[in-house]
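Weekly puzzle thread! Below is a chain. First person to post its structure in token form gets bragging rights.
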Amino acid sequence: MPAPSKVPEILIAEADPWTAELIAQLVLDLHANARVVLVSDGHEALGRCKRRLPELVIADGELPGINGVELLRQLRRHPRTPALPFVLISARVDANSVRAVRPLAPSAYLGKPFNAAKLRKRLSALLPAQDTGAGSPAPALLVDNLNEYLDGVREEGFGAPLLGDVRDAVSQCLHADQIDLGDLEETFSRDPQITARLIAASNSAAQHLGVPCQTLLQAIQRLGITHALNLVLGMALERNARLHDPRLAELANSTWRSAQRSAELAYWLASELDLDAELCYTAGLLHNMGELALLRSLQDWQDRGGSLGDQALQATLTQRAASFGSALRIRWRLPFGLRELVAAYHVLGGGVFSREALVLNLCAALLELPAGQSPLSLMDERVTRLLRIDPEVLERLPARLLAG
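Winning reply:
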């Protein structure tokens, strides 16, 4: 086994970007200073090992190029790598496949879909543990300008903070013996980042089945409960998921409540108009995820030693929230139809609109009404006329959906 390093390099060879990201988060949760290298091809992984030997390899058994088993075989033959720790994750779990791999002595052999908690336990035995408590310093800033820092993290697109109650619910799900699909959807639907990530993952190349998933329930059904829970666990492990600055925490909670109101209002209106209520709920939930992502990034900036005054905070939110949301929607490869609805919440612009897009735009107008003003005051607005909405619908609109 290679000598321990203060900054171990971990090579993850995995073609699916969502699975690779989850494994990387598991590694970093155990050793925050580890240097994680991601490759998606077996030849690239082998070449990387020849150039610089990592402390650990985690490989997909079905890698393109040369598969994970062949990668392990070649590393075991090399005089420099006979005992290199190697975790193999494979869809081949039949007795013959397991017997064939056993002589190559992998450190762990896990089947697909793997259980993230079990993988984490295996990794904890192969990686040096590291204190990740509040007393551990965050990595130092590489830039001293807030705008330059935000430009960099926006393109990384890691996403918004998971709220504490959702993360606790996720933990309970992971330890449950039996999980009901309906209960799982109800739990996850409360958080916009979970919704966006699972929909994006279900529409990735590995999962795509011709018809895009556009709602959370569709995504969980396509991914399967195990894969969905794994992806959510990876998000829960992202560092600085909780916001310590009380200003940012208050803004995050307010933004989340706004997402909830938008989603519930969009669902109610779409149901009344016999439209796709689930799709409208999803779009309403995701309309302000840029603000959540930006707030998490501002917390990271401060944790790394950056300063953030009240004036700079307000200016940054005004100027950058929209671009953070756009970057996330693109990076997560949300279906175009869903992106169109999210955009319609903010502005209709020109062109032809689906009735669901009009519902989202009407939601925004309703939520911007001054306190005490009747929804009927919007009857002459463009969006209301395009929907040809019956005034009775607006009269029956539950007051709780408009409460601030």
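Puzzle host: Confirmed. Bonus trivia for everyone else. Confidence is low (pLDDT under 50) at residues 1-5.
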